[in-house]
Recover the amino acids of this structure.
């Protein structure tokens, strides 16, 4: 697919410089830059997921309740009843 884009002169100058220094064509430099942008964008979106945002917090605290993961409802109800009293 061919795509035409408008760039500021500064970008064109930088792309030309990179192409000259690397021996790549300008179009290849642009493809690599777009590829990197897409990968970074996808990575950031993955980090936006709630579990990803809390990844550094998972497993860092001890509740002292060995079956909290499987019996969380029972523990929650018991805790709510204790607060009512």
């Amino acid at each position: 697919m061919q795509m035409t884009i408008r760039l500021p002169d500064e970008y064109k100058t930088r792309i030309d410089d990179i192409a000259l220094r690397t021996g790549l064509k300008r179009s290849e430099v642009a493809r690599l830059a777009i590829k990197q942008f897409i990968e970074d964008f996808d990575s950031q979106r993955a980090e936006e997921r709630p579990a990803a945002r809390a990844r550094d917090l998972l497993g860092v605290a001890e509740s002292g309740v060995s079956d909290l993961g499987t019996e969380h409802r029972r523990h929650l109800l018991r805790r709510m009843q204790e607060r009512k009293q």
Summary: The two ends are 70 Å apart (CA to CA). The mean pLDDT is 85. The CA atoms of residues 8 and 43 lie 27 Å apart.
